[in-house]
Each structure stands twice: as C-alpha cells, then as structure tokens.
C-alpha cells in the first residue's frame, strides 16, 4: 500500500512557518519586565514601529496564505483517499481487495467452472467463512490480483450425492434423489411384474405408488380392492422386506456411481449360476425339492421344457437370483368359475347302462372366488381362498339313463378314486402351463372312478406308471404316478374296483395320485364331475 509522502511534506512546511512567528514575538520581549516592556514600546522610535508594523503585516499575509494552502492540501488528500477491504478466510488474513464484489465474482466463476467440469454431478465449492474489514488510505492501491489468487488456491470442492443403503449396507451413491427413486421403482417393476404390465394387460391390475420410505401410498385402487367383483387382481400392498435408507451425502466426484450399475447390484446381488444334469429317477418336483427352490424357477429358467418332459443328461439352469432387496406384494385376486349343472337321473330299465336321454337341459352356474396372494420377488409365498360366492345358481339337468347293465360301459357319474382323500393340487394353470388334472393323497388303494374297459397300462412320460380307462361313453379317466397295477389292458372294471396302488413314479414330488377326466379327448376339470 502506498504511503502519504506529499501530505507529510506540506505538514512540515506549515509547522515551520508557525514556529518562526512565535520566535519573533519572543525575541522582542526577551528579558524585560512588564513595565520595562511597556517603556520599550513607548520609547520605540518611529522607524522601529514601522518595521514592526511591516513585519506584522507580512506575518498576516503568510498566515492567510498558510490557511489557504492547508485547505487546498485537505481537499487534495480527500480526493486521493480510497476505500479498500481486508479479506479474511476462516479468520486468516488473505490480503486486500477494492470491493467484496471482486471476491463474489471469483466464487461465481469457480462455481461455473466446477459445473462445466462435472455436468451431471451436483458440485459444491468449499470457500470457508470469508469476512471483510473496511479501511481507507491516501492513494491506497489494494493487492486484488494477489489476494484473489491466494483465495483460489485455498478453495476446495466436493460432490453432493444420494446414498442407497439396504439394512445398513451401502449399495452405492447416485447423483440425485430422482435417480435413487427411479432405481427403486425399477426394482419393484422387475420383481412385481403386475405393476409394469398393468397398462398392457386385459386383466384388471390396479397398482399403488412408491414412496421414499419404500412403502405404498394409498390410492383409490386401495379402496376398490375389497370391492373388486370382476375377474382381475388388485395390488393392495407393495413394500420392501428390508429397510431401505436413502439420504444425501458429501463425497468425492469419483464416488458417484451410474444408476444402472446400482440397479444391477441390487437385483443381481450375490447370484451365482447353478447348473444341474438330470439323473435317473429325476422329475421337476423332486429336483425342486432337492435344491429347495420353487418349480417355477425351473420352468422360467428352462423354457424348452414341455409337459414336464425331461430326460437323463438334460442340463437344467437352476440359477436363483439372490437380490439385495426383496419386493413383497399382496394381491386380491378374483376369478369366476363355472359350477357344473346338477344332474337329476331318472332310471330307465329299458335302456342299456351308458345310454341316456336329456329330458331337460341343465345350465351351469357361476361362482366368484377371491384369493389373497402374497408374493416375494414375484414368487408366490401364500395363496389363500378368502371368499366364495355363488353369483348364478346352476339349473338342474334332468337325464333319463338306462339301468340295463352291460359290463364295460360307464354310468356317466364319477366317484372320487381315493378314500380319505385330500386334494393337494387343483386343475388349472400352474407356472404358465395347464395342470390337466387334480392330485390326491390318502388311502393308497386306487379305485375305478366309473365302469369301463382298461385301455392302457404302463409307463407314460410325466405320469410314470399309468392306467387309462375308456368308459365307452365319450369319457376316459387317467390314473398316474402309480406304484403298481391290479388290472391289465382289456380288463372290464366296475365302478369302485381296485385298479392299482398309489405311488411316486414319473415327474412326481411325492406319493400321490394324479387323476384326469377327458371328454372326447379334451381334459376336463374333474371337480365338475365328482
């Protein structure tokens, strides 16, 4: 900072002038008493008085000139005195600038440079606490350039990201909240495909929206869930089993991960590929049991499997995803199911057994079945029938049937082929395929469901040891997974005859009977006839 040399020189001139006139007055009166001084003044000659007057006048002129000069000096100093600011960073002296705006401009320029260098990341310039102290000086020149350069060298920066944690485990840091939300929604859509397919499906699928805490937000669909009457499903709950934490965090720019990488890390987790070669005696169900996985995994990973047909040497992909996050969904599912028309049989001993005549056509009824289905990552965990309501009552069909017995012909009325039975699997779609019969466990003796002729006895792919009975009236029944046979091909059997022993052959998940009813070659739902 420059000093005040011109101002100091003028001060010295002024001070010497004042001191000169003081000395002159002191010299005239030096060594005199008050009276003597008066006498001196009285006796002073005329020329002395004139001299004194002349000197006094000169002094006045000098004094006036000095005053005028001082005023000019003051104006000069004021016009050349400039304001400046001392700059401090976290209490440390940095330097001087002409105005705080110069520091603000530096900060703005540095911030803009950070944004350009990291366009997709939220960067923060760390400037510390900058304070200013105002000052001013004669011909003051602040060291702005050096001060700004020193400040710039002390600035640091960091990125602000959003970290995603699952049960306290850090999965990754993404650039912002929107990216984190998008990842979690994608995870929900992957493991709860009903949410993603809602717009494409002809079946009603209503969804609830994701919120930051991983829970669902209520919607009109939630209220409609209990009122669903048409075939379809309503997703009433969507949540993450694990605790999901999403929060802002300061990190280095290099720690910000791509959203796609974090998504893959969540859905793939610690998955390791698993392959298995089919051995003798294997079946889909028993392989699933062996590896403690759902048969659905086998079907999904090996779409080439048809009708449960696998052979020794086939390689199966049994890989099960072990994602970091588990999506749990609860659905209300409504299905409409037909009710077979009851049949009132009027006997006619003039007609042969198996012959019949419809006197009054029956009409099937309709019932509404409501299920509560709970899934984890798309796999069914529980399925519970919560309500069954008859919508349309069936109308009884009146049939006249002959009672004249002719061996080998069916009566047209079927009985359950197992005593003390329990149904373990029903007729219908399972994992994208038709389960064309029903499965029973119970007493090991297998009985003929109706009279007929044994058409087939032997091994079949999938059902193992199998018996097929032709009832000579358009119907056939199939009995699968048997342990042994009590009949041979061509035998005529009566309804209720023992035909075999329950077993675990073929693609079986345990000892049981697989039972089918076919009408003119087409599988029927056995429960409509039993």
How many strand elements?
32
Low-confidence segments, ≥5 residues, pLDDT <50?
2-7, 24-38, 40-47, 197-226
Summing up helix and strand content along with how strands pair, one would put the structural category as: alpha+beta
What's the gyration radius in Å?
Answer: 52 Å
Mean pLDDT: 82
Characterise the protein shown here.
Residues 274-318 form the LysM domain. The chain crosses the membrane at residues 53-73. This is LysM peptidoglycan-binding domain-containing protein. By secondary structure, this protein is an alpha+beta fold. Among the domains are: 5-79; 83-154, no CATH class; 275-317, Membrane-bound Lytic Murein Transglycosylase D, Chain A; 407-530, Distorted Sandwich (Glucose Permease (Domain IIA)), CATH 2.70.70.10. The protein contains eleven helices and 32 strands. Strand 31 and strand 32 (522-524) form a beta hairpin. Helix 1 packs antiparallel against helix 3 (46-79) and helix 6 runs parallel beside helix 9 (259-268). The model is unreliable at 2-7, 24-38, 40-47 and 197-226 (pLDDT under 50).
């Amino acid at each position: 900072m420059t000093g005040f040399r011109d101002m100091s020189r003028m001060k010295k001139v002024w001070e010497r002038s004042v001191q000169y006139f003081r000395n002159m007055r002191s010299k005239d009166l030096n060594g005199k008493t008050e009276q003597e001084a008066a006498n001196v003044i009285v006796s002073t000659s005329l020329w002395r008085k004139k001299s004194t007057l002349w000197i006094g006048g000169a002094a006045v002129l000098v004094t006036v000139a000095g005053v005028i000069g001082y005023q000019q000096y003051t104006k000069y100093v004021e016009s050349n005195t400039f304001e400046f600011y001392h700059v401090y960073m976290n209490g440390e002296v940095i330097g001087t600038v002409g105005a705080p705006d110069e520091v603000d401009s530096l900060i703005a320029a540095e911030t803009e440079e950070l944004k350009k260098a990291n366009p997709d990341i939220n960067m923060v310039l760390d400037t510390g606490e900058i304070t200013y102290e105002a000052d001013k000086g004669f011909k003051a020149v602040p060291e702005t350039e050096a001060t700004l350069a020193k400040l710039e060298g002390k600035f640091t920066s960091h990125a602000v990201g959003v970290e995603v944690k699952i049960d306290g485990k850090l999965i990754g840091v993404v650039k912002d909240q929107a990216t984190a939300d998008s990842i979690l929604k994608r995870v929900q859509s992957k493991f709860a495909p009903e949410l993603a397919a809602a717009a494409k499906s002809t079946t009603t699928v209503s969804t609830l929206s994701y919120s930051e805490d991983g829970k669902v937000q209520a919607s009109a669909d939630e209220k409609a869930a209990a009122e669903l009457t048409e075939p379809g499903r309503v997703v009433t709950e969507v949540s993450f089993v694990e605790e999901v934490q999403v929060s802002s965090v300061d990190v280095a720019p290099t720690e910000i991960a791509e959203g796609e990488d974090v998504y893959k890390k969540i859905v793939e987790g610690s998955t390791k590929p698993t392959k298995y070669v089919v051995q003798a005696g294997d079946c889909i169900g028993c392989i699933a049991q062996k590896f403690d996985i759902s048969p659905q995994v086998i079907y999904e990973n090996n779409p080439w499997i048809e009708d449960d047909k696998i052979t020794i040497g086939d390689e199966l992909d049994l890989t099960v995803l072990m994602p970091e996050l588990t999506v749990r969904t609860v659905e209300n599912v409504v299905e409409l199911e037909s009710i077979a028309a009851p049949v009132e049989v009027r006997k006619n001993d003039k007609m042969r057994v198996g012959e019949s005549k419809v006197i009054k056509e029956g009409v099937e009824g309709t019932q509404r079945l409501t299920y509560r289905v709970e899934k984890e990552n798309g796999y069914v965990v529980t399925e519970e029938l919560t309500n069954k309501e008859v919508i349309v009552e069936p109308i009884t069909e009146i049939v006249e049937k002959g009672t004249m017995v002719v061996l080998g012909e069916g009566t047209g009325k079927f009985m359950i082929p197992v005593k003390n039975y329990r149904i373990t699997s029903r007729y219908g779609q399972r994992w994208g395929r038709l389960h064309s019969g029903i499965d029973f466990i119970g007493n090991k003796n297998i009985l003929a469901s109706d009279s007929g002729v044994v058409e087939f006895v032997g091994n079949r792919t999938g059902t193992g040891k199998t018996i097929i009975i032709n009832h000579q009236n358009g119907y056939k029944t199939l009995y699968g997974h048997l342990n042994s046979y009590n009949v041979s091909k061509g035998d005529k059997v009566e309804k209720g005859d023992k035909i075999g022993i329950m077993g675990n052959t073929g693609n079986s998940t345990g000892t049981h009977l697989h039972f089918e009813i076919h009408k003119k070659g087409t599988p029927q739902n056995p429960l409509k006839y039993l």
